[in-house]
Amino acid sequence: MPVTKFNHPDPYKYQTGFDSHHESEAVEGALPIGQNSPQKAPYGLYTEKLSGTAFTAPRHENKQTWVYRILPAAAHENFVAEDANSYHTRMTTETHKLHHIPNQLRWNPFDLDEKVDWVHGLHLIAGSGDPTLKQGLGMLMYAAGKDMGKEAFYSADGDFLIVPQHGVLDIQTELGRIILRPNEICVIPRGVRYRVTLPDGPVRGYICELYQGHYQLPELGPIGSNCLANPRDFQAPVAAFDDEEESEYKLYSKFNNTLFAARQNHTPFDVVAWHGNYYPFKYDLGRFNTIGSISFDHPDPSIFTVLTGPSDHVGTAIADFVIFPPRWLVAEGTFRPPWYHRNTMSEFMGLISGDYDAKVGGGFKPAGASLHNVMSAHGPDSGAFEGASNAELKPQKVGDGSMAFMFESALMVGVSEWGLKTCEKVQPEYNEHSWKPLKRHFVNPNKKA
């Protein structure tokens, strides 16, 4: 299994298991025994419930966590909308200006930004739906170069699936701390408060925010009980808290894609103990157990799904998170890269490192992206097609040193003003460079010479 390189050891402890009921206490005896909400919680703590689903959701879907904290989360001043016109307070989530277009799009690598922190380095690229109705998703880039100060942030809109491309995130959440590096992912559920600092300097990466439901492991069907992402490889934080008598904090809320802020006179990170199944977690992509064809033909990319955000229609996702890690190709008599296709799903791709085997022309680079919207035709560029059509079909390992991924959605997504124009990263000749050079190879046997 590949080992993630990191300049510092991970200083934090974790619990393992996906969607498991975890419990953790930073002070022995802080978790009540036998009751969730005793008349008086241990050590004079306050009891608070964090609900990620409706109280009456089916047991197998119900997500909730009980926390025992020094002061309740409700103890803050009123939220006030931030000034959207100020550079330092602007969070570009212009969902009212989405452009729905059928063109294939590709972006050059997005810039680092050392002037802003995590909250103010979020940029919506594309999205669909409405967080007020808890429907749809948003696809974002983040770029930051400053630590958050005595601040915390949460999204009321949806779950953040964070995919780092550059740099290290030290994420202090209410329920404990997480170190996140490239080739790892983290999910922070709706409503969980956290603070991001940068131990190794500027950071950049991708986010898929799920407005609808929560991320879960895909069903394995005929694959059986193992492979893909195994539950035991997911890590949740253990309880860790700050004990500050009086401390001024600023609390940011992303609420209907608008940024609000409130003041409070105590730390948000005062949870001494907790138990439940609603918590942030991380996963090392190097632990993904890839499968593929060992006879012929090219399987659907769904075999590379790490996490899914299902819709109400079985087998159709609001968001699938799919990766293309290093893997062996052994299929015989087969065009091995992805075939040309038109998909009822929208496909947003990003590249963490290396080169993607279906794009050899150099236009798809780490920290860049592409979008092939609903029924927009796409596939290998001309160079990849010619190479794969004439390659010797011996066992071949592809993707060494590379990690590409895809946010796939059943929804038609619109591109933000920032993603289409402001960032100035769209490649105007993507289509022309990728597919216009394709040559005609057809020989009509019925055509007379």
From TrEMBL:
Positions with a binding annotation for homogentisate:
356, 378
Which InterPro entries has this protein been placed in? HgmA_C, HgmA_N, Homogentis_dOase, RmlC-like_jellyroll, RmlC_Cupin_sf
What UniProt keywords are attached to this protein's entry? Answer: Dioxygenase, Iron, Metal-binding, Oxidoreductase, Phenylalanine catabolism, Tyrosine catabolism
Q: Which residues bind Fe cation?
A: 341, 347, 378
Query: MF terms per GO, please?
Result: homogentisate 1,2-dioxygenase activity; metal ion binding
Enzyme Commission number(s) from the entry: 1.13.11.5
**Pathway connected to this protein:** Amino-acid degradation; L-phenylalanine degradation; acetoacetate and fumarate from L-phenylalanine: step 4/6
Query: Would the keyword Transmembrane helix be found if you checked this record's keyword annotation?
Result: no
Q: Which GO terms describe its biological process?
A: L-phenylalanine catabolic process; L-tyrosine catabolic process
Name what cofactor the protein needs: Fe cation
Question: Which residues act catalytically here?
Answer: 298
What family does the entry list?
A: Belongs to the homogentisate dioxygenase family.
Q: What is this protein called?
A: homogentisate 1,2-dioxygenase
* Species this chain originates from: Penicillium fimorum
